[in-house]
Amino acid sequence: MYERILVPLDGSKFAEQVFPPVVELARVFGSEVVLVEVCEPEESEFGQACRLYINNEAEQLKKSLQGSAANVRTTVLEGKAAEQILSYAEKSDISLIIISSHGRSGIAPWSLGGTASKVLHRVGVPLIIVRAKEAPEESTKVALFRRILVPLDGSERSAAILPYITELTNKLESEVVLLRVVEMGKHVHTIGGLNYIPYKDQDIDKAKTSAQSYLDSVNSKLTGAKVTVKSEVRVGDAAREIIRLAAETGCSLIAMSSHGYSGIEAGINGKVSKGITEGSSDDYIGRVTTHGSG
């Protein structure tokens, strides 16, 4: 599942913060790492500079991967960054994209950079977005996969992330925290507009029991050689509870499908995914997302 990793760079130190997790994954899976830089139309005159930069980064990465089966190659594309990244990933049998949340345009609070945001919403392969920081941690201290939060909503789409978690935990020592959020009500369309209808206490209690049973069944199927699994059911807004639990448990990675479904069992849907991706604090180093099926 991690045979070929695509790593977009733009010449900035923010974009280069992806390298610690790239090295960690590539070493254990023996991955081929493809470094890509996109020269946009107005930058065509700098094509040679792009090639020199990307080749230099490749040489540095090769040194970090010495002694492993991983290998590195480079490519320079021309066009709009997000479109070229997505097109290349589709045509080149890419298994995973690892991209920084921000690049040379700088860090804007509470949002993703333009390229990362566009890739997130249109990508068809698994994606890790590394949260860029003004003052990043030393690479020796970063352990992206040490503790992983996995929000689920009971749907097949949200469960699409689980094979990727199993693959990770077969190779990397990790603690997985499973989460199911039960919402306290739902929005329904009526003649007067969109109304919020709270659930009855007994319905919420039933949903909590059902949610815990579901997480127990998932727990029994996570059989990674180096994994320990915990689970938790919470009541409230899905995005807020996911972010809160990640902070409380020190999870460095939120791994989820970008689309689930809404309902009494708390939908982890596209809106929730967007809220987590753009609303979480800089304490979270990254997240991996897959669009699931259907």
From TrEMBL:
It holds the Pfam family Usp. Residues 1-131, 145-276 form the UspA domain. CDD domains: USP-like. Belongs to the universal stress protein A family. This is UspA domain-containing protein. It comes from marine sediment metagenome.
